[in-house]
Each structure stands twice: as C-alpha cells, then as structure tokens.
Amino acid sequence: MKRNATAIWNGTGKEGHGNLSTQSGVLNKTQYSFNSRFAEGIGTNPEELMAAAHAGCFTMKVSFLLVEAGFIADELETKCVITVDNGAITKSELTLRGKVPGIAAEQFAAIAENARANCIVSKAYNCEITLDASLV
Q1: What's the rounded Cα separation, in Å, for the pair 30 and 2?
Q2: How many Cα atoms are found within 13 Å in the side-chain-facing hemisphere of 11?
C-alpha cells in the first residue's frame, strides 16, 4: 500500500504560504502558513496532521483488537496532542474514551496499550507516546 500527499510552498518561510493536497482529495489545496503552524492562523499544519494521523490509526487499531477479543465498541474517541520542543517532535499524547459494552476496564486498558505500541503510526514516530485510556 502506498499513499501520497503534495505540498506547494511560495515565498519565504515566515511570509510565504502554501497548500496541501492528498491523494484521496480530502485535503485539496488546503492552506498552511507560518501563522497556521506557529500561531493561530487559518489553515492546517504538519503537526496537526500528525496528530490526526496518530489518533485515527490508533483508534482503528483499538477497534480491530476489540473485535478480536469479542467486543464491538459503541464509540471510541481519541484525542492526540503532538508536542514540539526545540525544533523536534518530542511527544504524542493519546487520550482514549471508549464505550464498549461488556468489557472489563483492565481488558480495555490492555487492548488500548497494545494499540498504542503497535499501530502503524506509533511504530513510525520517534518520540514518547503516552496513553490515557478509560471507559465512559
């Protein structure tokens, strides 16, 4: 499997602007800039997209592992926060809230930890990955 995205940038790093497009078309010339990355400007940024990728991959992995264990989630919600310090991504914090009928909290925690360690995106990231998982 291969997936792709394209970035186009015009101008300097601080005053310039760019756009991102993805193979699926979900992002189609989506704006990004210095302000959307380092301030509160309109548009996306690489770190936000990394957070989305990690939240999405991890949550899907939890779902697969739940089914393997005989459970179907009513809902899984994951928030991911990417931390940048001194020009490096140093942490990815996953917070999972799950509604899973019939599962014990300990089994849910073990499945979530398995997903944290083994989802494709977790394996790609070279930073600390934390997890706070609970049933709601």
Answers
A1: 21
A2: 10
CB 44 within 8 A of CB 52: no
Give the tens place of pLDDT for each residue, 84-135.
999 999 999 999 999 999 999 999 999 999 999 999 999 999 999 999 999 9
- The neighbouring-strand residues paired with 10 are 17
Count of CA atoms in the C-beta half-sphere (13 A) of 3: 6
Structure tokens at 16: 């310039």
Residues 36, 72: Cα–Cα separation, whole Å: 37
Do strands 88-99 and 128-135 pair parallel, antiparallel, or not at all (unpaired)? Answer: parallel
Q: pLDDT-derived band of residue 40, with 50, 70 and 90 as boundaries?
A: confident
pTM over 0.85: yes
